[in-house]
Amino acid sequence: MQAKYIAPETVEAQAARLRARYSLEGLEWLGSEEYGIRVLGKGYFIPVTAKSLISLIEGSAFEILRYDCKWQQDPLPTRLFAYIGGNDPYLTLPLEELKVQLRSRVADVQIGYIPKGNHHFLGMEHEVLKLVTDWVHAGGK
Question: What pTM value is reported for the model?
Answer without folding.
Answer: 0.74
